[in-house]
Amino acid sequence: MIQKKICMVGAFATGKTSLVARFVHSIFSERYYTTVGVKIDKKVVSIQENKLNFILWDLYGEDEFQKVRMSYLRGSSGYLLVVDGTRHSTLEKAFNLQIRVEDAIGQVPFILVLNKWDMTEEWEIENSEIDAVIQKGWSVIKTSAKNGLGVEEVFQTLAEKVLTG
């Protein structure tokens, strides 16, 4: 079985831990827990005849007091750049993080994850901004860790990207 390290990257409170919990354990909690350092989970993803053992590194969220340690990303085969659609600032943070991640580990597959899609009435990110990101050639998937929308798709899509290089 092929093992692949995948990192969850984004601002604080974007739903990185909730996405992992939904994907790995099929659960969602309304409680907010701050990730301290890194939380590691595993899940096998099947793509065509291949089985990938995803080692999911859920990194603490970046904020004005704490920057993500780029050393945590070493050896990553891909990453999810997680944005909270109800907080526009998390999109700006994601753009900044993507540049830093690429500087640190080079170009590896990633997906921009627009999380909290179940809360669209509170959405701060415009469709035109999403379209602009897609125009740059980025993969963008809307998710809801709360109801599971798009979660499986995100990890399946990333697995395909990792396999095809």
How do you describe this structure in short?
This protein has one domain: P-loop containing nucleotide triphosphate hydrolases (Rossmann fold). Helices cover 30% and strands 28% of the residues.
CATH topology, by name, is Rossmann fold
CATH top level class name: Alpha Beta
The succession of helices and strands, N to C, reads EHEEEHEHEH
Strand percentage, roughly? 25-35%
- Total number of helices: 4
Cross-sheet strand order for the largest sheet: 2-3-1-4-5-6
In helices, the fraction of residues equals: 25-40%
- CATH homology group: P-loop containing nucleotide triphosphate hydrolases
Average pLDDT level: 94
Number of individual domains:
1
**Radius of gyration based on Cα positions:** 15 Å
Q: Which CATH-level-2 architecture? A: 3-Layer(aba) Sandwich
Structural class, by secondary structure, is alpha/beta
Low-confidence stretches: none
How many strands, what sense, and barrel or not for the largest sheet?
A: 6 strands, mixed
Any key phrases for this structure?
6-stranded mixed β-sheet; about 160 residues; Rossmann fold; about 30% strand; 6 strands; alpha/beta; single chain; about 30% helix
